[in-house]
Amino acid sequence: xxxxxxxxxxxxxxxxxxxxxxxxxxxxxxxxxxxxxxxxxxxxxxxxxxxxxxxxxxxxxxxxxxxxxxxxxxxxxxxxxxxxxxxxxxxxxxxxxxxxxxxxxxxxxxxxxxxxxxxxxxxxxxxxxxxxxxxxxxxxxxxxxxxxxxxxxxxxxxxxxxxxxxxxxxxxxxxxxxxxxxxxxxx
Amino acid sequence: xxxxxxxxxxxxxxxxxxxxxxxxxxxxxxxxxxxxxxxxxxxxxxxxxxxxxxxxxxxxxxxxxxxxxxxxxxxxxxxxxxxxxxxxxxxxxxxxxxxxxxxxxxxxxxxxxxxxxxxxxxxxxxxxxxxxxxxxxxxxxxxxxxxxxxxxxxxxxxxxxxxxxxxxxxxxxxxxxxxxxxxxxxx
DNA sequence: AATGAATGTTAGTAATTACTAACACAAAAT
DNA sequence: ATTTTGTGTTAGTAATTACTAACATTCATT
Lengths: 187, 187
Hints:
Two copies of one chain form a homodimer. By secondary structure, the first copy, chain A, is mainly α. Helix content of chain A is 70%, strand content 0%.
């Protein structure tokens, strides 16, 4: 028999894995099995599947997608600022592609817009950083944020290997440079 | 009682509407009700829900997303070429946002990748046009296609009103111009 | 008028699934 | 030692849902 240690983390961890594979349609049965707990334990801790789902999403948003945009926004050099944002976000995204795919999918389906407006989160996180960096300047930060978001989305939605895994370091820098130039062309 | 005219179109039309709202999770009951036919009629014509779903998607892909990219690719002026692609695709997308959201969502969920690889469709449609236009030139058409795709995706996934509905014609041209410059910056 | 094709109606099956109740048990806290 | 807490087990309910069978009906064609 299992120990009596609190199973909450165990459940959350398993739920992430299962929700990534199947989205909100995943069953509590599957999750319980993956977590190696009784199904009822899951209900005792999270009451409903929907609630577990939301908990999982909040959990991963807090722990795995902390944006560096604001920290970088203090940087004086705009080109460097852009390059670093792009570099950092593509890095994070490439390590969480299945998760992000699921999040976007569920968001587009309207399965989490009430509690968590993911597109808005992405967008305003970028826009706030840009607003900070370009404070006082006459820059269309909304368009820039959209463009940056588009670059990231293209790497999630469009077909591709893990970004840059097929490139050596030199080529990778060239690509990020090009992205940077393309965003700067909006200014 | 209803006429005996073939109900196939009626069902397809209703199925589009319902699938847009609920994705593959929509029930045949809902679709039959929306189409004002008996549920069994739907099964007699499409055998399974999955099959109806695929039929619907093939139908809309053929009828509503005919790409102009190839036609424009003959255009000599690269800047004009880009501008026209962007203009046209954003126009089409803005008129089909809910549909495209559903398609992307289901694609990311893996509910249609076997039969229809939507990301690949989008990507290769763009890339083929670019390859044609830049034949012989040393241009990273893959990166360009990704960038264009990113612009379109940003308008689907990120929060925004219908693209350009809040802008007058002059502002709209400015934005498309900026997008064009940003893609040209990749060359 | 008779036939056939397309559709509707009614009824049902079998599987899934979110969620609950009741009781048993083990370990930690008191 | 007793209580409390966390968990497991078994059993179940009520709802949903893809899909089918059998038969009735209506319209168009001949």
